Amino acid sequence: MSSVLRPSIVILAALLAGCATIVHPGGAADQAAWQARRQRLAGVDDWHLQGRIGVTTPHRGGSASLDWREKGDYMTLLLSGPFGLGAVRLQGTDKVMQVRDSKGRSWTSYTPENALESSLGWPLPIGSLRYWVLGLPAPGFDYKVDVGSRGLPSRLTQQGWNVRYNAFKRSAGLFLPQNLLVTRGATRIKLIVSGWSLGGATQ
């Protein structure tokens, strides 16, 4: 077997084995930095971000202040001021979510992906967004990523959503997304982070 054909056969074998991840790095050093960054962030399960979120859909849109806390598999999201309706709080896991609105009404959602859509009309992919906000692909799903300098993602495509990273902020020794745009069709979700906290280290 020629040495020219051998690498192609290895790549083909990897694809046939079910590896549907596609990485477009800026260079070998960037790819190595991307893999190192993924490994480091994969162990982060205690974080907190504050900022603003804006959502535009074909039928409605709006913005709100966002306070998002993650501890293990448990998350708490507080959205303040969407459409002037006060605050909406979501608490739970990616399996079940408790939703409470400003009028004191609460209900349980067993489809957290639809938890905000049922209350605000916002199709927010919470289960995957909890990884995308860190600059990571959600586990268990195929994805494509464009990697730039320092191994930072510039664009991520997963589950029919496109995530564009416009700016990063250094926090606790890591560069974390500060400005990202998530789109699918006519739906646009813009998130601007004003503060990050990882395991108690805040910047």
Question: How would you characterize this protein structure?
Answer:
- This protein has about 200 residues and is an alpha+beta fold.
- The chain is about 20% helix and about 45% strand.
- It has four helices and 13 strands.
- The chain has helices at about 5-15, 30-40, 115-120, 125-130; strands spanning about 20-25, 45-55, 60-70, 75-80, 85-90, 95-100, 105-110, 145, 155-160, 160-170, 175-185, 185-200, 200.
- Strands 1, 2, 3, 4, 5, 6, 7, 8, 9, 10, 11, 12 and 13 form a 13-stranded mixed beta sheet that branches.
- The longest helix has 15 residues, at about 30-40.
- The radius of gyration is 19 Å and the shape is globular.
Which secondary structure elements does this structure contain, and how are they paired or packed?
Layout: H1 5-16, E1 22-24, H2 28-42, E2 46-56, E3 61-71, E4 74-80, E5 87-92, E6 97-100, E7 106-109, H3 115-120, H4 126-132, E8 143-147, E9 153-158, E10 161-171, E11 174-184, E12 187-198, E13 201-202
List keywords for this structure.
alpha+beta; 203 residues
- Helix content bin: 10-25%
Give me the Rg, rounded.
19 Å
Report the order of strands and helices: HEHEEEEEEHHEEEEEE
Report the average pLDDT across residues.
83
Report the major sheet.
Answer: 13 strands, mixed
The general outline is globular
Low-confidence stretches: 1-19
Number of strands: 13
Indicate the structural class: alpha+beta
Strand content: over 45%
Q: Count of helical segments?
A: 4
Distance between the termini: 55 Å
